Amino acid sequence: xNILRKISQKLLHFxxxxxxxxxxxxxxxxxxxEVIDKLVDDFYQIMSTDPVAEDCFATHSGxxxxxxxxxxxxxxxxxxxxxxxxxxxxxxxxLRARHFPFKIGAxxxxxxxxxxxxxxxxxxxxxxxxxxLLNAFAGMTKLVQNRES
Length: 149
What we know:
Order of helices and strands: HHHHHHHHH
Structural class: mainly alpha
CATH class: Mainly Alpha
CATH topology: Globin-like
Number of helices: 9
CATH architecture: Orthogonal Bundle
CATH superfamily: Globins
Radius of gyration: 18 Å
Largest sheet: none
């Protein structure tokens, strides 16, 4: 019985791995760096002007927003399967460690997602891919949270 279970698990792993290899990378699904570039510009425009995002925007106080935008663009390029621009320029992303100096709670995470959702709606990215990205972003916002509220 154990041998059948092991064979079944190996077959499932093979199918999953094959599917992953045959799938188009997210970078290509969303339209490459040109779309990432506009998405991030729209994201920061929303964050800097929408009162709903004031706590999230406040975490950037004293920082050059253009530098933050470049870092996010470079990160998203590699994270979605495109060129590893962030890694090449800044090293390993270490998301949690790099965000530790900023007070980030659930409220800031929710506001970040709000801005990204609005930016995605302005993008040419297909709705089902937008949803996939938002689900992944939700996990990332939880990862970088370093306070309760």
